[in-house]
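A.,

Following up on our hallway conversation. Structure tokens first:
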């Protein structure tokens, strides 16, 4: 079967209500927390994607039983020291940076050697950002080229607490150190540039010994040794990062409206909403509620004819970190020159996304000026593509695939986009939802 999609027509107007799948960050964190809880935890609406299944397979290898029944996953935690596995075990994080990085914080107190491997994309990514702070606790790391996978971790039962300054705005780095701090003697201090805070919210909900002091640009976090974690039943809300593709599909289509139900709108995740509002898009949150510390709402959005360019304030970067490819498409149709700076971290993702964003924009005839950490996009409200666009060899980055599909469905031209399977990592139902929206026609 072909693993590419061909798009020849833009999508016709639609007016629909949809659900997107469960949040990936929360799903992976729930699997990991449940694996060391004292007893049985159940989750509904867990994201059934390859990244999350890699997390499930990882805890199974660590001796934890997991079962699935309909829309419910059950994890039979055996307590904080309940992992049971042989020396020299290999865990495969596949494509998932979040799993690969967070799980190291969970393995840090194991004196047995564990190997961590990943797929071609993950093997190109930086793991020194995790091994460096975690070795200060007392774990020993060996990494390929001192920074990549495969790596070996050998932890210790006697870890000392550390002080850590997180400057990148990386929730993965911050979380790995929080998990390390949960295992170390004494209290670990973290000063972290603002980033998604699902780990902290779960720690608070579970009443773990964590204290957070919110400052303007960073958070101060104190975490002490954890003795016991209670089981955690959870209904995973929908993913704003998956919703983002449909928000932009609606914005760039004609006379369309969309309501996306039950989406996590944690303030540390909604950079795309603030950015699109500044660009002139009409987006509203409806039915707001709080679920175990996480804010949830339905998101309503409508097509927008007049889009304004944006000089994007860098303080919005972390909250929109996974959405820039799709935001760049909106900038391509906006009047004026948009400017995004301090976004070098984009090149550290599943593929070098700042490069790929530039490539896609240039292929569709949009002028850009790109550096290692910024991009200027010369928008064209009359943009219409007439040529054939081929997207391939992008390290199967799911977000490159999905952003390209949205471009094809809204900007015209004929698109051939390879590696459709990439959606399985984060959003397996992406193309089904597109087909559902098309059925409106
Ligand atoms: C994530 C954090 C972000 C994000 C990734 C998920 C998380 O990565 O890009 O998709 O769940 O903690 P960084 O922490 O590297 O910015």
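Then the amino acids I'd put at each of the 441 positions:
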């Amino acid at each position: 079967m072909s693993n590419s999609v061909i798009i020849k027509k833009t999508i016709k107007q639609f007016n629909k209500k949809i659900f997107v799948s469960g949040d990936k960050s929360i799903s992976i964190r729930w699997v990991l927390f449940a694996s060391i809880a004292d007893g049985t935890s159940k989750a509904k609406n867990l994201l059934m994607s390859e990244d999350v299944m890699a997390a499930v397979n990882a805890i199974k290898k660590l001796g934890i039983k997991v079962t699935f029944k309909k829309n419910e996953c059950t994890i039979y935690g055996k307590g904080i020291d309940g992992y049971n596995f042989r020396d020299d075990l290999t865990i495969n994080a596949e494509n998932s940076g979040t799993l690969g990085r967070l799980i190291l914080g969970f393995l840090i107190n194991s004196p047995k050697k564990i190997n961590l491997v990943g797929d071609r994309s993950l093997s190109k990514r930086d793991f020194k950002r995790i091994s460096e702070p975690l070795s200060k606790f007392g774990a020993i790391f060996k990494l390929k080229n001192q920074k990549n996978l495969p790596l070996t971790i050998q932890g210790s039962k006697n870890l000392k607490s550390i002080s850590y300054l997180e400057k990148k705005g990386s929730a993965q780095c911050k979380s790995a150190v929080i998990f390390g701090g949960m295992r170390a003697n004494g209290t670990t201090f973290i000063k972290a540039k603002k980033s998604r805070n699902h780990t902290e919210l779960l720690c608070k909900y579970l009443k773990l010994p964590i204290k957070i002091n919110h400052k303007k640009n960073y958070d101060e976090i104190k975490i002490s040794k954890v003795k016991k974690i209670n089981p955690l039943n959870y209904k995973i809300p929908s993913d704003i990062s998956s919703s983002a593709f449909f928000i932009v599909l609606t914005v760039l289509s004609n006379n369309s409206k969309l309501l996306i139900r039950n989406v996590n709108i944690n303030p540390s995740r909604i950079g795309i909403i603030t950015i699109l509002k500044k660009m002139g898009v009409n987006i509203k949150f409806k039915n707001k509620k709080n679920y175990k510390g996480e804010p949830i709402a339905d998101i309503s959005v409508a097509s927008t004819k007049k889009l304004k360019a944006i000089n994007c304030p860098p303080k919005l970067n972390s909250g929109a970190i996974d959405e820039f490819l799709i935001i760049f498409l909106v900038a391509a149709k906006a009047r004026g020159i948009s400017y995004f700076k301090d976004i070098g971290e984009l090149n550290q993702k599943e593929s070098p996304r700042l490069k790929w964003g530039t490539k896609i924009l240039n292929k569709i005839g949009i002028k850009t000026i790109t550096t290692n950490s910024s991009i200027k996009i010369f928008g064209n409200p009359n943009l219409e593509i007439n040529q054939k666009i081929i997207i391939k060899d992008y390290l199967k980055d799911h977000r490159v695939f999905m952003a390209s599909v949205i471009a094809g469905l809204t900007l015209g031209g004929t698109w051939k986009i390879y590696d459709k399977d990439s959606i399985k990592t984060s959003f397996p139902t992406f193309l089904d939802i597109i087909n559902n929206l098309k059925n409106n026609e």
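The pocket of shikimate-3-phosphate is lined by residues 25, 98, 170-172, 175, 196, 321-322, 345 (CB under 6 Å). Curious whether your intuition agrees with the design.

B.
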